[in-house]
Amino acid sequence: MDIEARIKRRQRRNGEPRLIQDYESISPVVHIEEPADRGPVLERLLDHLDPVFDGQLPPNAYVYGPRGSGKSAVITALFANLEQLPTEQQAIIHTTTRAQPPTSPSFVYVNARETASEFAFYHAVLDSLVDESVPEHGIGTETLKSRLHELVREQRTGIVIAVDHISEPESIQAPALVDLFAGLPSNVSWLAIGRDDPSTTELTRYTAESISIDRYQRQMLVDVLMTRTSNGLAQQGLDHGLARHIADWADGNAHNALAALFIAAEFAEERGQDRITQANVDAAIAEVPDPCVSLGVVLSLPTNRQAVLRELIDLEENERSSVTATTEAIASAQSVDLSAGTVKRFLYEMAESGVVDRVEATATNGQGRPPSRVEPRFPPTAFRRLYDLRE
C-alpha cells in the first residue's frame, strides 16, 4: 500500500477523525505478521520443520483444518519469517553462478487458488526463487520446468514449498499436485494445506505427518478481532462486547468473523459514526451467507469474472429476476466489455464452482419451469469495498 493511500485514509472528514484508519488491518483477505493466539500451532509446525535449522529438509506433511481456522494466516506468517533467516544461515538464490551455496533450505509459499495450471504452478515457484521477474508470456511450460529443475538442483540444501488451498473448486486438486511434485528433483520437501480429512486425501500417501489446525476458540477469535481493530480502526472503534457477539456468531470461523467486522465498520463509516454499533454488527452478520464462500476465492478469480460479479451485486431487484435479465443488465454495463453470451457462461461457471447460487424464483405464470435468479454466496459489501480499493 503506498504512502499516498495511507494518508488519504487518515484525512479528516467534517472535522472528525475517520473510523476506518487502515482497511488492510481489518480486511478478511489480508494476513497479519503475527497471528493472534496461535502459539501452539506454530510450535507444532516448527517441530516438523526443525531439520531446516540444521540445514536439512523436513519430510513432507499435510496441514489440515476447517474453513476459517487460520491455516493460511499461520503458514504465510511462518514462511515469511523463515524466508528471512539470518544471512549466515541462508543466502539469496541467484540465477547466475553463486560463490557460496546457502546453508539452509529456501522457502516458497504458493497459493493454489492462483496457480491451478501446470504453467502457473511452476511459474510461481520459479518466480519466488530468483531475483529477476520471470516472464508470464513468450515462454512455455517445459522451458519453465527445465529452468526450475536446474535451479533446484543447484540449491544443494533444497527447497521447502507450502501449497495452500488444495482441492478447492478453482484450485489445484490433490492428484494434480502429486503429479506436479513428482516432476521436481528429490531435494524438494512440501507442505500441502487443505480442508479434507487426512483419511480422504491421497496426499497422505506421500507424507510423514498430518498436522491438524483446530477452529478458533471463542476467546481466541475475540483476540483476533480486537487486534485487528486496534490497528485498523479509530480508538474505541469496536466495543469488547460486540467483538464477543461476533465471535459467538462466527463459531470459530475467522474469515466470517473478520468479514462481519469489515462490513460493520463499512456501515458505520458510511453513516459518519465514530464507532461500530450493535445495529451495524447485526446488519453485517445478516449479510454474510451461510455457507459463505471465502472472499479470497472471489478475489482470486480472473479479472473479467470479478468485473461481472462487481456489476451483479449492484443490480436492482428487477434486473435480477432471472438469469437472462441479469445477463442483459451486466452485459450492457460500461465497465464490462463482454458479450451477453460470455456473461451468461461466466455466471453458469461460477454457479457450478459455488461462487454464486442459482435460486429458483417463487413467482411463476404457471407455464413451464420457473425462472432462476443469481445470488452471490459472498458478502456483497465486503467484496464491493475490497474490489474498489484495489481498482
UniProtKB/TrEMBL annotation:
* Pfam families in UniProt: AAA_16 (PF13191), Cdc6_lid (PF22703)
- This protein's record includes keyword Lipid metabolism: no
The keyword Cell division is assigned to this record: yes
Ranges of residues in domain Orc1-like AAA ATPase: 38-185
BP-aspect Gene Ontology terms: cell division; DNA replication
**Any one GO MF annotation of this record:** ATP binding
| InterPro entries documented for this protein | AAA_16, Cdc6_lid, ORC1/CDC6, P-loop_NTPase
Describe the location of the Cdc6 AAA+ ATPase-type lid domain by residue ranges: 223-284
Q: Which UniProt keywords are present, listed alphabetically?
A: ATP-binding, Cell cycle, Cell division, DNA replication, Nucleotide-binding
PANTHER family membership: CELL DIVISION CONTROL PROTEIN 6-RELATED (PTHR10763), ORC1-TYPE DNA REPLICATION PROTEIN (PTHR10763:SF22)
| The protein's name | Cell division control protein 6
Its ancestry begins with:
Archaea, Methanobacteriati, Methanobacteriota, Stenosarchaea group, Halobacteria
